[in-house]
């Protein structure tokens, strides 16, 4: 089905199912219970997971398949956001044209930046992409302020032309919509104290994320995807087999840039505001971490990585000292303060520390990322009864060879 | 006229004249061996033929066209495939994928954006790759990750990857170097079989005299970057200059 083999079709259907039921799956705790703050089923977070999932899946097409590690992909995220907001200002609050323009413009930028950066490989390529992204960031604050509105960020205004919407406009700022259905409208369902929120914004992002994921599966399984893995494996052999690795790598770069632009456009569609800090190098680093944390080169890994990081960012950062005190109030005073102090380092503002520790543990013990962890658990469950020792593992996936020359000459 | 005509090729690395004034003509459907001591410039000569190096002087004509100034992938598309001194394969990919890549390269050229096709639909190419794998006796290893195989199998795979492209000229750089005896014998058998079954021109660099004399139609002896003599294997064996420059000091024939 869908041009996929049976295994991939099943896989895609599972992903579709999980995505569509996210508002329920991410809301496991009853309202008012102590664990309710671990519920992630609110639109803002779920949208972010879907959007950054798209970003990471696209990034993985470049990094996971060809081995070229870009440190500047946030530039395309920012460019996508600016393009989309311009479309909202000039044409219509319907998000479709904005998202299409976001993909086109970021694709053009990716073609230009990729063309230059791909003259080098390895660390030099990474540095070049980083430099280009920082240049975009700086220019957004300086020469390009007429386009980006500098530090304030690009926003909607009442006197925007909005050619297509003009007639129906009121006196307050319009909201983004999909053919009239506002992105921020939602339906709340209360089942036995569990409140599930189904919002237009999330489902819009979810459908696009599923499409983006489907395209990625097709690409991974195509001859083109195989060529990209060949680029990572041995460019020398490629050359002497009559293949030119350059256009293959550039195509992968542009495709992943367009995924980033799509994600940027969606961010703007959820919240019509674009700022340059979206292009900062830390944002580029985040997508690298998402991809590696989940499992570079796998289909599901980047999505998982994006989900974990956005969940940590949104949930752990909300746990402040007073929350911790309410958890540990039953401890003797002195010990309570100590325990709260320790936990406070890892929550609230300190959530980055949790992320850092998680990342270190995963990279050290699961070089294949969280996906590798899931695979190991699955295998454990499957042949749990059998005696196992460390030589008892025929699956080469579990012993990934050390990465060879990353996109070396 | 040979299918490959090398005229007056010279190559200098800094102070070292790696190739002097090399003239070489390789005729269609022959096996032409290039022998010579270590550092004689044999690999350098091959590098000049496949676009890895640009010679300082001279010309290289293949099938009536100059190869100089062309990129390696363009030269491959003209019909020259090369097996390297250390096997160059796609180590992270499976044996079958290693075979499919040259098949696609041969059919679709240096670049094609086949992002929405599925490999499984390419029945003709799959059949071709499988036929080639079974010819070299590796069909049962088709799903193995290439880097996990023995050196002999890697070399076999590399030869199969070159052959499946049906090149007009196959260049082999010391195909048995560093191999166990059994692997060497297997490789010789494979090359003999290829020679017998296919219309193909082969240029082979080889240290193992047993291999050379059992395969070659003609032999060129290279020493210090210049061809010493070129003749049939029988004549080379008895040639005094060759004995002095090469055979006498390293190998018993
Ligand atoms: N890329 C290079 N740069 C500098 N010197 C080289 C290079 N390639 C080969 N040489 C030198 O040229 C000479 C011939 O080398 P080569 O062609 O590899 O010999 P062989 O006949 O053993 O294959 C050697 O002295 C080698 O050190
Ligand atoms: Mg050599």
Average pLDDT taken over every residue of chain B: 90
How much of the sequence of chain A is in beta strands? under 5%
CATH level-four homologous superfamily name of the largest domain in chain B: P-loop containing nucleotide triphosphate hydrolases
CATH architecture of the largest domain in chain B: 3-Layer(aba) Sandwich
Keywords (chain B): ATP-binding, Nucleotide-binding, Transport
Protein name (chain B): High-affinity branched-chain amino acid transport ATP-binding protein
Domain ABC transporter (chain B): 4-249
InterPro entries (chain B): AAA+_ATPase, ABC_AA/LPS_Transport, ABC_transporter-like_ATP-bd, P-loop_NTPase
What does this structure look like?
Chain B: Keywords: ATP-binding, Nucleotide-binding, Transport. Chain B: GO terms for molecular function: ATP binding; ATP hydrolysis activity. Chain B: Residues 4-249 form the ABC transporter domain. Chain B: One of its GO terms (cellular component) is plasma membrane. The complex is a heterodimer of chains A (409) and B (253). Chain A has 409 residues and is mostly helical. Chain A is 61% helix and 5% strand. Chain A has helices spanning 6-20, 22-25, 43-66, 74-90, 95-117, 122-141, 145-148, 200-221, 223-233, 235-239, 245-270, 281-294, 301-315, 321-328, 333-346, 351-365, 370-382; strands at residues 154-155, 177-178, 181-182, 186-191, 194-199, 273-274. In chain A, the strands form three sheets. Chain A has a two-stranded antiparallel ribbon. In chain A, strands 2-3 form a two-stranded antiparallel sheet. In chain A, a hairpin with a 2-residue loop joins strand 4 (186-191) and strand 5. Residues 387-409 of chain A have low confidence and may be disordered. Chain B has two domains: 1-79 and 167-252, Rossmann fold; 90-164, no CATH class. In chain B, 38% of the residues lie in helices and 24% in strands. Chain B has nine helices and ten strands. Chain B has helices spanning 42-49, 72-78, 95-108, 123-135, 151-163, 181-197, 209-215, 233-238, 240-250, and strands at residues 4-13, 16-26, 31-35, 57-62, 65-66, 80-83, 169-173, 201-205, 218-223, 226-231. In chain B, a hairpin with a 2-residue loop joins strand 1 and strand 2 (16-26). Chain B is globular. Chain B starts with a strand and ends with a helix. The A-B interface holds A 3-5, 218-219, 221-227, 229-230, 232-234, 236-244, 247-248, 251, 255, 396, 401, 404 and B 50, 71-73, 76-77, 81-82, 84, 88-93, 97, 100-102, 104-106, 108-120, 122, 145, 147-148, 161, 165. The site of adenosine-5'-diphosphate has 11 residues of chain B, from strand 2 and helix 1.
């Amino acid at each position: 089905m869908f041009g996929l083999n049976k295994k991939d079709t099943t896989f895609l259907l599972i992903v579709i199912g999980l995505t569509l039921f996210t508002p329920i799956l991410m809301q496991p705790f009853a309202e008012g219970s102590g664990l309710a703050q671990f519920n992630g089923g609110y639109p803002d977070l779920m949208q972010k997971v879907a959007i950054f999932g798209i970003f990471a899946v696209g990034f993985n097409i470049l990094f996971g398949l060809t081995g070229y590690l870009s440190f500047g992909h946030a530039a395309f995220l920012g460019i996508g956001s600016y393009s989309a907001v311009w479309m909202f200002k000039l044409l219509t609050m319907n998000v479709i044209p904005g998202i299409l323009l976001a993909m086109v413009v970021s694709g053009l930028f990716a073609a230009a930046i990729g063309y230059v950066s791909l003259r080098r490989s390895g660390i030099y390529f990474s540095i070049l992409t980083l430099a280009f992204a920082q240049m975009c960031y700086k220019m957004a604050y300086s020469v390009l302020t007429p386009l980006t509105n500098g530090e304030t960020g690009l926003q909607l205004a009442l006197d925007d032309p909005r050619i297509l919407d003009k007639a129906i406009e009121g006196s307050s700022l319009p909201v983004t919509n999909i053919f009239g259905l506002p992105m921020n409208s939602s339906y709340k369902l209360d089942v036995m104290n569990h409140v599930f929120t189904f919002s237009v914004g999330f489902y819009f992002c979810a459908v696009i994320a599923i499409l983006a994921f489907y395209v990625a599966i097709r690409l991974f399984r195509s001859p083109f995807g195989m060529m990209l893995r060949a680029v990572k494996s041995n460019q020398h052999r490629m050359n002497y087999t009559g293949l030119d690795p350059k256009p293959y790598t550039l195509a992968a770069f542009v495709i992943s840039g367009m995924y980033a632009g799509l994600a940027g456009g969606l961010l703007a569609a959820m919240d019509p505001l674009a700022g340059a800090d979206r292009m900062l190098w830390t944002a580029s680093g985040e997508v690298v971490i998402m991809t590696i944390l989940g499992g570079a080169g796998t289909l599901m890994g980047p999505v998982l990585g994006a989900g974990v990081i956005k969940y940590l960012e949104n949930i752990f950062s909300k746990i402040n000292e007073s929350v911790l005190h309410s958890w540990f109030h039953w401890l003797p005073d002195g010990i309570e303060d100590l325990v709260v102090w320790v936990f406070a380092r890892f929550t609230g503002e300190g959530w980055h520390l949790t992320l850092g520790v998680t990342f270190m543990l995963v990279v050290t013990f699961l070089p294949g990322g969280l996906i590798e962890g899931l695979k190991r658990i699955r295998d454990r469950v499957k042949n749990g009864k059998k005696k196992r020792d460390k030589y008892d593992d025929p699956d080469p996936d579990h012993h990934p060879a050390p990465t060879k020359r990353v996109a070396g000459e | 006229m040979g299918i490959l005509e090398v005229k007056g090729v010279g190559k200098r690395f800094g102070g070292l004249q790696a190739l002097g004034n090399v003239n070489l003509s390789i005729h269609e459907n022959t096996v032409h061996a290039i022998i010579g001591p270590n550092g004689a410039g044999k690999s350098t000569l091959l590098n000049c033929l496949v676009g890895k190096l640009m010679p300082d002087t001279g010309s290289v004509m293949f099938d009536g066209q100059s190869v100089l100034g062309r990129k390696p992938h363009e030269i491959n598309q003209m019909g020259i495939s090369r097996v390297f001194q250390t096997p160059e394969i796609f180590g992270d990919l499976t044996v079958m994928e290693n075979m499919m890549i040259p098949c696609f390269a041969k059919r679709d050229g240096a670049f094609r954006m086949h992002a929405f096709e599925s490999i499984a639909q390419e029945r003709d190419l799959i059949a071709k790759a499988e036929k080639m794998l079974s010819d070299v006796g590796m069909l049962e290893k088709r799903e193995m990750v290439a880097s996990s195989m023995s050196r002999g199998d890697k070399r076999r795979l590399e030869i199969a990857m070159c052959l499946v492209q049906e090149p007009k000229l196959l260049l082999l750089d010391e195909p048995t170097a560093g191999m166990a005896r059994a692997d060497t014998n297997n490789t010789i058998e494979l090359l003999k079989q290829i020679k017998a079954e296919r219309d193909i021109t082969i240029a082979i660099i080889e240290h193992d005299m047993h291999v050379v004399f059992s395969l070659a139609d003609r032999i060129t002896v290279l020493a210090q970057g210049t061809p010493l003599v070129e003749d049939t294997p029988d004549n080379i064996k008895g040639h005094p200059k060759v004995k002095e420059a090469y055979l006498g000091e390293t190998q018993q024939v």
